[in-house]
Amino acid sequence: MKKIASNCPQKESPFARCLRLWLVAAVALGVVCVSFSGCTNADSKQQKAQAAAPHAVSVAVAKVQRQDVPVYLVGLGSVTAFYTANIKSRVDGQIMRVNFQEGQIVKEGDLLILIDPRPFQVQLEQMQAQLFKDQASLRDARLNLQRFTTLIPSGSIAQQQVDTQQSLVDQLDGQVRTDQAQIDNAKLQIVYCNITAPFTGRVGLRQVDPGNIVHAADTNPMLILTQLQPIAVIFTLPEDQLPTVSQHMKNSTLLVEAYSRDNETKLATGKLQTIDNEIDPTTGTAKLKAVFDNKDNQLWPNQFVNANLLIETRKNSTVFPAAAIQRGPQGTFVYLAKPDKTVEARTVALSLTQNNIAVVTSGVNPGDTVVTDGQDKLQSGSTIEPRNMSPSNTPSGKNDGTSATSGTPAS
């Protein structure tokens, strides 16, 4: 019997099936790679285009101005009372009355403390009685001397007796003078019982009370009196600055401004009085003394202050914020902002740095714009995006104490 041919497909082998699936996957992967390569090339071209475009740097800017600049020399100092007195007793006795309150302002000559004067009053009366007695003896001796003297020509009395009487008169005269000195001393002790203010000043804390016994040998004072108006400030400056200060002192009286410990608050304005007569070799500084009226009592003894000595005022100076100053191999320079929002490195001649401003003699002109922040990302020709100028970016000639090196000329 013959086999009949079948039109039905034969069953596919496992190897053929795997080969077919592999070919399909390879074709699909090729399509994906071609698509991804096209996208990648497009993104790369876009990034290169963006990188090639100029990038603006955000910076802070400020205007160059023309103004008067005060030049200060800054030193550290402390307030010192113009006069200070430790009031002690000069006699021994009991305190009868205290005529002041702690912190009171007393005037020169005001009675502060009264010590019992009665013992000294009794001594005074005793000395006065002794003087009266010795004066009577002196008068009698002088009368006898006159009588003896009239008898000498008649030879009724010896010259030796007359000389002896003269010696007695001299001795009694000396005794009378001693009595008078003791009386004056007793009166002085009574005066010492009245403790008065030697000058106008402020009384400190009270150390004694009525009824206390005080002695002339006591080491602790009964009170401390200090003069606050006027008051002095002793501050130091480097010895290299003394010639400049001395030269300006010959021309005019120099002003000194006292600032608080944090160098933020101006306390008072005074005048420079003198320079010490020697330099401290250990620190290389010299002491200067300034006097303040201190009408509002802003300064207190031993208070720490920052003293700003005004040397001169430079008229019509070209200034801008000191933050704009840059230093490089070519010297001192600034980045000058142009109208097209690009910058140019401009060399400047620095004359002075005063607080937060810089004074220059050449390189920029009033009205120019300089970069004060973000210079580390700049070079000549860089594109910038200026930020709004803040008040801190505006030059100011006021000595606001923002720098401890204010008044230091630039080298």
Quantity of strands, as a count:
23
What structural category arises from helix and sheet content?
Answer: alpha+beta
Give the C-alpha Rg: 49 Å
Determine the N-to-C terminus distance.
124 Å
The helix/strand order is: HEEEEEEHHEEEEEHEEEEEEEEEEEE
Largest sheet: 6 strands, mixed
Helix proportion: 25-40%
Sum up the overall morphology in one term. elongated
| Helix count, DSSP H or I runs of 4 or more residues | 4
Mean pLDDT: 83
> What fraction of the residues are assigned to beta strands by DSSP?
35-45%
Question: Could you walk me through the main structural features you see in this protein, from its secondary elements to its overall organization?
Answer:
The protein is α+β, with helices and mostly antiparallel strands. Helix content is 28%, strand content 35%. It contains 4 helices and 23 strands. Strands 1, 16, 17, 18, 21 and 22 form a 6-stranded mixed sheet that branches. The N and C termini lie far apart (124 Å). 24% of the residues are buried. The model is unreliable at 1-10, 49-53 and 397-411 (pLDDT under 50).
Task: Fill in the keyword field for this structure.
alpha+beta; 6-stranded antiparallel barrel; 4 helices; 35% strand
Strand-helix topology:
Layout (H helix, E strand, L loop, with lengths): L13 H39 L4 E7 L1 E17 L2 E4 L5 E6 L6 E2 L4 E5 L2 H34 L7 H34 L1 E3 L4 E3 L9 E2 L8 E4 L4 E8 L3 H10 L3 E5 L6 E15 L4 E8 L11 E18 L4 E3 L2 E7 L5 E5 L1 E6 L2 E6 L6 E5 L10 E4 L20 E2 L2
Parallel strand pairs: 1-22
Antiparallel strand pairs: 1-21, 2-11, 2-15, 3-10, 4-6, 4-9, 5-8, 6-7, 8-10, 11-14, 12-13, 12-15, 13-14, 15-20, 16-17, 17-18, 17-21, 19-20, 19-23
Helix pairs in contact: 2-3
